[in-house]
Amino acid sequence: MSSSRIHGLDTLRAIAVSLVVLHHYVLFVTDRPTFGWVGEIGWAGVDLFFALSGYLIGNQIFKAIAGGEGLSLKRFYARRLLRTLPNYWVVLALYFLWPAFRGDGPLLPLWKYLSFIQNHHLEPGTAFSHSWSLAIEEQFYMLLPALALLGAAVSRSLRGAWLAILLAFAAGMLTRDWLWRDVVAGERYWMHHYFKYIYYSSFCRFDELLAGVAVALLRNGHPQAWARLTRHGDLLGAAGLAITGLAFWWFVQDRYGHAPTVFGFPLLGLGFSLLIVAAVSAGSLLNRVRVPGAGALALWSYAIYLLHKQVCVLGAGWLAERGVGPESPLAIGLLLALSVFTGWLLYRLVETPFMALRERWVPGNTARPAARPVEI
C-alpha cells in the first residue's frame, strides 16, 4: 500500500488522540484533575480531529474536482467505508456481544450505531458514548462530496463556495446561541442539556470540520495565494498556537458559558486551521520536525480512539482490586500503554488488511484513477 506521510499532520493527529485519551482518563477513571488543565481541555482533541478530517477529505475532493479526472462518488464512498467501518464494527460487536466489556452503561438500539445517528439527542453516560464524534465525521463524509459536486455543477464560482462556508459558520453560531438560551440558561439540568442538545449535536459541532474544508478550498481554489501563504509557515504556526491557547484558556475558565459556546468553537477552528497550514508548509518547523512516536500514534489513532475508554475503565478496575489506585504513576503508565497496545492490535488485525484490500479494489477517488495514487 503506497503512502505519503506528512510529519506535521502526524504530529497534530498524535496530539489529538493524546488529548482525548488523557481527558477520558480523567472523566471516566479518576474523576479528578489528574493531568491538570491538559486533562481538562483534552476534549478539544476531538475538534482537532475534526479540523484534520475537514482538510484531508476536502483536499481530496477539491483536488479531484479541479483536475481533469473528476470525482467518483462511488469510489469515494467505497474508500471511506473501507477505511472507517471494519474497526468500528469490531468494537461495536465487543459492546453488544460482551456485556462485561461495556460495563453498566446502557446501549442505544443497534440501528442507531449502524446508521451513525447515535449522536442525535444522545444521553450522557451511554455506553460507547464517545462514538458521537464518529457519527458526525461519517455524516460529513457522506454529505461533503455530494454537496461539492452539486456546487460545481450549479456554479463554477469560488465565491459561492466561500459564501456557503461563511453562512454555515453563522448558522452554527446562531443554532448554539438559540439552544443555549432555550435548554441551558436557567434550567435545572443545564449541564445534561448542554451535552445532549449542543455538544453532541451535528448542527452545533461542525465548525472545525468547516475550518479544515476552508483550508482545503484555499489550497485548491487559490494556488497563488496558497503559495504565498505557505512561505510563512512558522509565523502561521505561532499564530495558530496563540489562538488555540486563547481558546483553551477561555474554555477552561468558562466551558459551558454562553459566549464560549457560541464563539469558542469557531475560534478553535481558526487556531487549528492555522496549525494545519503550518503543518503542510514546506520548511516550517512543524512540517520538517519528526517527533519520535508521533507517526505511529497518528497511524493507530483511529483504533486507539475506539478502544481506549473501556480499556482504561476495565484495566483500572482490575488494578484497583490489587491495590493499585488509578492516580498512581504505575496505573497511569500501564493503562496508557495498554490503550496504545490494544489500538495497535486492532490496527494490525483489522484495519491493515482492509486498507490493503482498499488499495487493490478502489485505488483512488477519481473517476479515472491514476496508476499510482498517493494516500495522505
Structural class: mainly alpha
Number of domains: 1
Q: Give the helix proportion (percent range).
A: over 70%
Order of helices and strands: HHHHHHHHHHHHHHHH
What is Rg?
Answer: 20 Å
Number of strands: 0
What overall geometry do the principal axes of the alpha carbons give? globular
Number of helices: 16
What's the pLDDT, averaged over the residues? 94
How is the main sheet built?
none
State the end-to-end CA separation. 12 Å
Characterize the structure shown.
Residues 371-376 have low confidence and may be disordered. The chain has 376 residues and is mainly alpha-helical. The protein starts with 6 loop residues before the first helix and ends in a 15-residue tail after the last helix. The chain is globular, with a radius of gyration of 20 Å. 74% of the residues lie in helices and 0% in strands. The protein is built from 16 helices and no strands. Helix 1 (7-30) runs antiparallel to helix 3 and helix 3 (44-66) packs across helix 13. The chain has one domain.
Which features would summarize this protein structure in a list?
disordered C terminus; mainly alpha; 74% helix; 376 residues
